[in-house]
Amino acid sequence: MSTSRFRFRPRPGEAVALISALGLLLTEEIALGLAEEEDRPVIGAFLVAASGAGLLIAGAVLVLRWLDVRRPLPLPPTGPNGREYSARALEDFPMDAVRPLLLGEQAPQLGQLYSAWMLARAGRPAPWIARRLDIPLDAARLLVEAARG
After folding, report:
1. Is pTM, for the whole model, over 0.85?
2. Which of 44, 70, 96 is the C-terminal boundary of a domain?
3. What backbone phi and psi angles, to 5 degrees, belong to 47?
């Protein structure tokens, strides 16, 4: 079995915020190094304040990422037979490969596998899908590999 790798890729807004905070800290270090001896306490105080701001920015980025992971997933609309997925959305769904998973003990529901398929096609990693939808990791890996193929 291959393992799915999750790479942290910041969004553009997150990247700008983190790079700005790092740039601010670097600028302060340079200013402190070039300052006269009598000006260093003032620059040091500014450095402490700006470092605190940088930590707040980094903390805000991490908290927003954490909240995004905990946000509930959007579900398709409910039809007469439960949640309905369009035929186009389920194109290339690997039903033959998934069928043995549906017959085992503690088998995931077909709707869960459809949702996992949608997330796999959207580029989500297998461990994330398995955790969010409470399905076996092997099933999530199978769907992610099929979506990539």
Report:
1. no
2. 70
3. -60, -40
C-alpha pair distances (Å), 143 with each of 10, 19, 102, 110, 126? 25, 36, 13, 13, 8
Distance CA 139, CA 102 (A): 10
**What whole-number distance in Å separates Cα of residue 67 and Cα of residue 70?**
5
Kindly report the number of other CB atoms within 10 A of residue 45's CB atom: 10
Q: What angle do CA 119, 120, 124 make, to 5 degrees?
A: 75
Range of the domain at 65: 12-70
Q: What's the pLDDT band for 144 if we cut at 50, 70, 90? A: very high
Residues 26-72: pLDDT tens digits?
887 788 788 888 888 888 888 888 778 878 888 888 888 788 777 76
